[in-house]
Write a structure and sequence with these properties.
By secondary structure, the chain is of the alpha+beta class. The protein has one domain. 23% of the residues lie in helices and 33% in strands. Strands 1-2-5-8-7-6 form a six-stranded mixed β-sheet.
Length: 192
């Protein structure tokens, strides 16, 4: 699911950037930003690099129930896991002003549309309910830690929190009929 969501947003954002005045092709590169400082970083020149820098579980959205009711059967399965991903958009251009211009376009894109659903977005990946993007402000200290961990020199960048990636598997742990009768100390209670 994560790869589908990132591929979708990269294509959608690239289409938007290509519609801007003076646009060229091949802006977005989903890649590991830590490769920027390595010898393979030359392929990342003149691109906006889209990279996941953190994944966390959204425990508030998670259901505590480990079953679903279908007709008269109860199906035991763990609830889906909802993820929040911190996505880094880094503009790696030799010309600093071009980097800032394209980074501004990325911010304008998410200001214009920050919620993506199957109803408002063509080619939305199946299995994902919706994606919500919120800009995440990093302090200078956090920014320093982030780029230090990535092992690269800073390039103009912005971080967005992508919310509500749902991860679930169709594997169920068994079926059972609903409980309709409880017997305690030779006394029976019936559900009516």
């Amino acid at each position: 699911m994560i790869n589908l969501a990132l591929d979708f947003i990269a294509q959608y954002l690239e289409t938007y950037l290509e519609s801007q005045p003076g646009a060229t092709k091949d802006y977005i590169l989903p890649a590991n930003i830590s490769d920027l400082g390595s010898s393979g970083g030359s392929s990342m020149q003149n691109k906006i690099i889209l990279s996941v820098v953190n994944i966390e579980e959204d425990r508030i959205s998670r259901s505590p129930d480990n079953y679903t009711r279908v007709d008269q059967q109860i199906i035991y399965q763990n609830p889906p896991i909802y993820l929040n991903l911190d996505i880094l958009f880094a503009a790696n251009y030799a010309d600093y002003l071009t980097s800032l211009q394209l980074l501004s376009s990325v911010i304008k894109f998410f200001q214009y549309q920050n919620v993506f659903t199957p109803l408002n977005s063509p080619n939305f990946p199946q299995g994902i309910e919706k994606l919500i993007f919120d800009m995440k402000t990093l302090s200078l200290q956090d920014l320093n830690y982030l780029w230090g961990i990535l092992g690269s020199m800073y390039v103009p960048s912005v971080v967005y929190k992508m919310r509500l990636i749902s991860i679930s598997d169709a594997f169920n742990q068994g079926n059972a009929p609903p409980v309709t009768e409880i017997n305690v100390n030779d006394k029976t209670w019936n559900q009516s």
